Amino acid sequence: MNAALRPSRTRPHSRLKRLVAPLVAPQVFDFWASRFHPTWTWERPLARIVAREPASADAVTLLLAPNRHWAGCRPGQHLMIGARIDGALVSRSYSAAQAHRADGRIAITVKAIEGGKLSRHLHEHSQVGDVLEIGAAFGEMTLPERADGAWLFLAAGSGITPLMSMVRELAAKGMPAELTLLYWARRREELCFVDELRAIAAEHPGFRVRFLLTRQEPLHADEAAGRIDEALLSELVPDLGARQVYACGPGGFVDSARALSQTQARSFAAEAFTPPPRMLDESGTVEVTLARSGRTLQLPRGQSLLTALEAEGLKLASGCRMGLCNTCSCGKSSGSTRHLHTGDVQDEPVSALRLCVNSAGSDLVLDL
After folding, report:
1. 20 to 30 Å CA-CA from 364: which of 176, 194, 265, 320?
2. Backbone phi and psi for residue 250, each to the nearest 5 degrees, phi listed first
3. Do residues 50 and 39 lie in contact, with contact meaning Cβ atoms separated by under 8 Å?
4. Residue range(s) occupied by CATH 3.10.20.30 in the chain
């Protein structure tokens, strides 16, 4: 069993906690425990950076050692990572580029995004020894328990990270299924894991990798040029109909991958790292009542509730801002909302909703 998932790492010392709980608040315990070890806490998951190395021209890989309160993750899943920047906690979701290590550590590969507060901090300023907040793993694009048939992984940009975690997992099992990885980047220097992927391909005949460049000409036998389209897929994967497809990358790339392969492949699963536009062509405002604070606000229709509430000065917990991590979920006791990605209307009187991907369809009462 993976060290990160062993009961001894995740089961609290329940007897000691029952004895001490009435006497010490968790926040007080965390404060004093951190004086002895930076990741000792009552129950809060933390992770310490134990190594960092460049992954590409604009990305860095951080090796993290979580404390015993973190329950681990499966290859392909995401986790919330948080760091204090200028005194405020900033959290975003990252995929584990390596999830199953014998020592229980995990790796994340962070691309520096223009305007990305946390990605810039982690890429440019994080150091070995820094302690980060780490959340529970989430995400459903994971490998099945048993490999069945051939696979095709389609990755673009940062979309390589969850798929790389799966490639590593399959390689550790001897590559039990035939797998082709097509990995797009604008330029060669933006590619991550190139040497490792080539080494895996050399060791496992059932694994084939092709690097696709959109702004450079190919120089090596495993490189090609061009954006994802029907002709390129037909050339590189002539047996697409026999394969199960996983795709990950920017929203436009995933949309193209879905249109080209969903009806042909045995199965198709995808996650987009950049969401579709989050504005609906709706006018007017609605009255939103915040039940806990007693405030009443006039918010615009067609805009995500998270964005609209932040514009009113509320500081709300959020993470991926794509409807994946549930960090911004809150209760709704009345009113209807519209999902900004699908257009679906939710009018159940008492329900939970993710503020980042829902807009107000009528007057609302929210548990905020």
Report:
1. 320
2. -60, 160
3. no
4. 285-366
Q: Is residue 1 pLDDT above 50, yes or no? A: no
Q: For residue range 163-190, what is the model confidence (pLDDT) as tens digits?
A: 999 999 999 999 999 999 999 999 999 9
| pLDDT > 50? residue 349 | yes
Indicate the burial class of 59 (C-beta count within 10 angstroms; 0-12, 13-18, 19 or more): buried
Indicate the class that CATH gives domain 150-272. Answer: alpha beta
Find tokens 């590189």 and name the residue.
Answer: 236
For 3-134, which CATH superfamily applies? Answer: Translation factors (2.40.30.10)
Mean pLDDT (whole number) for 257-283: 80
- Closest to 321 in 3D by CA, of 80, 112, 85: 80
Q: What is the C-alpha to C-alpha distance for residues 62 and 159, in angstroms, rounded to an integer?
A: 17
Specify the pairing of strand 131-134 against strand 78-85: antiparallel
Distance CA 54, CA 39 (A): 25
pTM over 0.85: no
How far apart (Å, rounded) are the C-alpha atoms in residues 365 and 350? Answer: 10
CATH of 285-366, one of 3.40.50.720, 3.10.20.30, 1.10.340.30, 3.40.640.10: 3.10.20.30
Largest CA-CA distance found in the chain, in angstroms, rounded: 68
Reported as a single tens digit per residue, the pLDDT across 43-80 is: 788 999 999 999 999 999 999 999 988 888 999 999 98
Which pLDDT does position 271 carry in this prediction? 86
- Residue 353 CA from chain centroid, whole number: 19
For CATH 3.40.50.80, list the domain ranges present in the chain. 150-272
| Distance from C-alpha of 154 to C-alpha of 148, rounded to nearest angstrom | 18
Mean pLDDT of the chain: 86
